[in-house]
Amino acid sequence: MAEKQIILTGDRPTGRLHLGHYVGSLKRRVELQNSGMFDEINIMIADDQALTDNADNPRKIRDNIINVMLDYLSVGIDPSKTTICVQSALPALHALTFYYLNLVTTARLSRNPTVKAEIQMRGFADEGLPAGFFCYPVSQAADITAFNANVVPVGEDQLPMIEQAREIVEKFNNVYGETLVLPKAMIPENEMQRRLPGVDGKAKMSKSLGNCIYLSDDAKTVKKQVNGKMFTDPLHLKIEDPGHIEGNVVFTYLDALCTDGHFAEYLPDYANLEEMKAHYRRGGLGDGTCKKFLINVMEEMLRPIRAERAKWEADIGSVYDILREGTAKAVETTNETLARVRKAMRIDYFADRSIEKEWEALLKQAKQ
Ligand code: ATP
Ligand code: MG
Fold first, then answer.
1. Do 19 and 155 share a domain, yes or no?
2. Ligand 1 pocket, residue 195 CB under 6 Å
3. Which ligand 1 atom minimizes the distance to the CA of 156?
4. In total, how many domains does the chain have?
5. How far is CA 41 from CA 37, 237, 350, in A?
6. pTM for this one?
7. Atom 23 in ligand 1: which residue has the minimum CA distance?
8. Strand spans (E) along the chain
9. Ligand 2 centre and the CA of 353: distance in Å?
10. What's 337's domain CATH number?
């Protein structure tokens, strides 16, 4: 029988979702959802994971669940095709995490480059590192495997997590017998979309770094971010000066976002980005024109998202029900996996009464 095609992805409810999420993961999820090629698509709001570095601020996590829900629905996640659920309401994940923790070493966890960078960024290196945060890749392995996901569409920063999950699956199946599905990461083909930098040019647009353009930002804010925060080429002082593309944030964003169609619509002087870049390099193309074009490209993407968001904002009751129903379904799926895992680990004592017979046989044998 062909393997079932199952997706799991998720986001931490630590803030509103931004363009990095959109190009790195959300857009792909909507395409995959509408492709009809998948048996199941699951999206999880990872509130437990968000608490691993926000333990003192549960309010923030609680408040952002609605923001993330609205972001999902406004980009086109369709609850009739995709199950949306919340992590903390799925007790099976906690149990799986606890078992998987025994299958990894602290040395292996210490080597995870994304976690290492995040520890630095959050100042945990000096203040002390919460054990939960250190171990979150293990809980992520629990999330993925609990849904039997074989495909995980994510940004590049998540590759070490998927690698870790694969190792746990292999180890588990090795020790306890073939039980868990081996997941694969799916990252964007477009290199710039794998890790969109912040408007400040920092390596990653990230809620924690405050360098984002949010999907819910209004047109005025977007314009302000592009014009005020994005640097171009510091050597490109006069329009006639030759310009540099490398490290030029405006061009990085254009690489990630624009299509030939955008040129026809907003900048017909060029057929495509290559022609525009060539002109910039030669000199004679101003930064103002480039930024204006980028704003048009972004606005074309963001306008329908904002309109959809406004509809859902007026109907929070339905949003709540979507999450409640999706979570109820996810409880069943993840409980089934946990039952399978416990059976494989021989700790399914109460699944049936077979252990009663085993105990009796054991005692009889001991007496002989
Ligand atoms: P936090 O700072 O709280 O970790 P975040 O902005 O990194 O927030 P996550 O919720 O951790 O967002 O990530 C959700 C998904 O979005 C992941 O698949 C991640 O790879 C992807 N993603 C996040 N930021 C970017 C980005 N700048 N470019 C591409 N993909 C991204
Ligand atoms: Mg993150």
1. yes
2. yes
3. 20
4. 2
5. 10, 49, 31
6. 0.92
7. 21
8. 6-11, 40-45, 83-86, 151-153, 184-186
9. 44
10. 3.40.50.620
Mean pLDDT of the chain: 95
Which tokens go with 30? 């909507």
Q: Give residue 161's domain range.
A: 6-195+315-359
Burial class (CB in 10 A: 0-12, 13-18, 19+), 2: exposed
Residue closest via CA to ligand 1's atom 25 equals 20
Integer CA distances (angstroms), 301 to 24, 27, 151, 235, 262, in order: 14, 11, 26, 31, 11
**What's the pLDDT tens digit per position in 4-47?**
999 999 999 999 999 999 988 899 999 999 999 999 999 999 99
Q: pLDDT averaged over consecutive 10-residue blocks of the chain (368 residues)?
A: 88 94 91 96 98 97 98 98 98 98 97 95 91 98 98 92 98 98 92 88 84 96 94 90 94 94 97 97 96 97 96 98 98 98 97 95 95
**C-beta of 196 in contact with ligand 1 (< 6 A):** yes
Atom of ligand 1 nearest to the CA of 118: 4
Give the residue from 296, 312, 328 where a domain finishes.
312
Residue 206, ligand 1, Cβ within 6 A: yes
Domain co-membership, 247 together with 346: no
Supply the DSSP symbol for 210. Answer: T
Residue 169 Cα to ligand 2 middle (Å): 22
